Automatic annotation (TrEMBL):
It catalyses: ATP + protein L-histidine = ADP + protein N-phospho-L-histidine. It comes from the Archaea. The keyword Ligase does not apply. Residues 292-345 form the PAC domain. It comes from Halovenus rubra. This is histidine kinase. InterPro entries: 2C_sensor_his_kinase, GAF, GAF-like_dom_sf, HATPase_C_sf, HATPase_dom, His_kinase_dom, HisKA_7TM, PAS. Keywords: ATP-binding, Kinase, Membrane, Nucleotide-binding, Transferase, Transmembrane, Transmembrane helix. The chain crosses the membrane at residues 6-26, 38-57, 63-87, 99-124, 144-166, 203-228. One of its GO terms (molecular function) is protein histidine kinase activity.
Amino acid sequence: MNEIRVAVATLFVLSSLFPWTLFRLVWTNRSKPGATGLLVIIPSVSLYAFVSAMITLTTVPWLWFVVSNILVLSIASVTVGWLLTTAEHAGYINHPLRWLNGLGAVLLGEQLLAWTNGIHTSFYDPVGTVSLPARVAPNAGPLFMFHTVLVYLLLGLGVLICVVNAFDIHGIRRKQTLALLAGVFPPAGVNILWLAGLTPYNLTALGFVLSVFVLAWALFKADFFAVVPNGRKRAVRNIPDPMVVIDAGGKVVDSNPAARELVDAESGWKGVQTAEFFSPFDEQFAQFEDSTPVETDVSVTKDGTERHFDLKVSPLGETANENNGWVVLLRDITQVKEREQRLREFQMKTEEVLNKRERESICEAAIETVEDVLGISEACIHLYNRRQEALVPITASPAFERRFDSEQALDQGPESLLWEVYNEGEIRVLSDTDEIAQPFDDETVSIKSMLLVPLSTHGILSLSAAEPNAFDDRDQYFGQLLSTTVATSLDGTQREQGLEAVQDITRDAVTATTHDEMAESVLGRMPAALDLPLSAIWEYNKATNRLHPVASTGHADPLLDDMPVFKPGNSIAWDSFKQGETKLVSSVSDHPEAYNSETNLGSEILSPIGEFGLFAAGSTQEESFSENERQIIETLTTNLRTASRLTERRRDLRLLDQVLARVLRHNLRNDLTVIQGHAKQIQRNPQGDIEQHINSILHSSKKLAETASNAQVMRTVIKDRENTEQISLQRVIRWAVEEVTDEFPDATVQLQLEADPTVVAHPNIVTAVEQLVRNAVEHGSSSVSVSVYTTAHGPTVEVSDDGPGIPENEIEILEKHGESALEHGTGVGLWIVDRVAEYSNASVDFTVEDGTVVHLTFSNYLG
């Protein structure tokens, strides 16, 4: 026998012993991923090395047959162990024993076929040998080729698992996977050398022996798992929340100091049952005994302090059916629970704030919230007072009042720090002593920090403390919430009280007998009722197309000493009136349409009072008005529009009564006196010339009829003052001229109809135009002209004559609008013209020179 062959065989036998040196280590750590497969690999590699020694020396066919079958079993078992190691390590299988049983059945079937080869000759075909340089080898049959494919398939699957897993994971786990993959290279490399003819003997067994040590080193000895437990222990120890590890039997195997401190278990805790470990809080942790995943909140009281935890019990197994133990994590949520409790208390307190209906009570409830919920004892609220143009202290906590005497908590004007923060609208935390002393003009103030919280446009909440940096993010958060609540409540109160004040103001306004009286009544209430000390009212004059000042508040007089007259294109006020839109101007001087860019007014609200005029409220500060106030003022002016109409209606009805009384008294007395005088003359001398007396009586009777007719027309004009209709001006002219020419057939009236506009006018517009034409005819004109045309101001009716002109005392009707203008019983027709024009939103202009020219211009028309 060749000495080299003996030496090689001896080497194989000795190498078969080395894998067993690792068995105890692997068996001790058999619960770790990959250990099951390695426990299969160790005996298989040992057997493979021993059998390789025998097959190296064997030349007897029957012995070769036995050894060859054992060799097939060992190499197949090695590849099965390799697959189990890699698959379990990668997490693809959770029960390696089940897989071992399944693959073991395949190997058992393979061995059965190998040992019965004499029957079917499919594993070795035929049974015999072929000569190799160092030994005998079988002729491979079809089943042997299946064995070969199976071996390489299992080996390739294990390699593929390692490669895929290496791409999916990172860090220590990736290094471990690559180390496992390195275990393939020793046997593969040696086998390739032999197949290439570079070695006279197949030394693959030695490669497998080396591979076993590589795999064991990768799984247990390369610090991969040593680093992980050490890191895990450090992590568990440093976790601030209590953490406990429990095995499948319900015993505590690990815990961190936080958990042991919670249950007062400094020693003797390892291996105790869960119920015993958590015995101080057995009621809260009784659910552990169910051995089911748990996630809930628990509360524990220790040393008189209640702590709250988010309890989470998680299984250590890979699947729901596997139970390798449990991890108990108690995340401390005490601060969260306290914050939730504080939020609940805060919500209850804010509901009280929102339910208040007075500014003072709202502020008092807010201060109580600061004290009770935030635990801040020093607090004060300043609210903006537009009359003083300052932040005025409304209410303060007792501690705040004790720290600051009354002179220190004075009003905060536009130059103060509190006003600056209020104007910016952003929370500010103060920690500089000099900066803190400034708001209260006291350099010896003992507070070290302040939190200033603006209350929207209403004011500011001041919180103070004697400690530096006393206010954290939590205080700022709750301060912001409280600010929103207080501002919302103050908005509601301002709106409710504002609307109540508007109702009271309107109630007084509607009783006014004149527009001036209405304006004075309204403006007298503005400073106190709506905190609008700078207010004024303008009235629109159709004749001049201007807004003329009527009255202003006493506070506004110094700023509006010379109240402006607004006309088209010269102001924001005119735009607001003409557009019928309430305007809130935050910065008057910056507005391109401002009447005076150098005005002392910082901001203003302009609101039209319908067709009557305009209401304006101002402030010396920019951005002084809120949207809430804009809506309140808009409601007020809407009501004032109705009040102005009622005032006009009462004025017109009163005027009608006065006019009718004066006209009837004057005209009836005169005409009846004439009738009585002529009747007496007839009575005294019935045989005399009575025709003259009869004609006079008839003439006076006709005038009485005209007086009655005019009285009826005047009543109709007043009654229909709110009514309008669309009508063609040409039709109006034709009807009016036809009525006059029927009455005065000798009169000559020329028509010049250049346009045919449709206007929106009072139903008695025909009567008004008829009065103008009749006046022209009655005053002895030989030529009367009536024209219709369109100007830039609107459709116009022009009535002109060459007579002596309308008497001045009758034109006064258009200027006085009163019954005194009719003291001589004349001018009734022009009074009708004036009223119809007013109600038609039209203007009347008279020019008396060589004759009279009257222009009736309409502002409401179609097209």
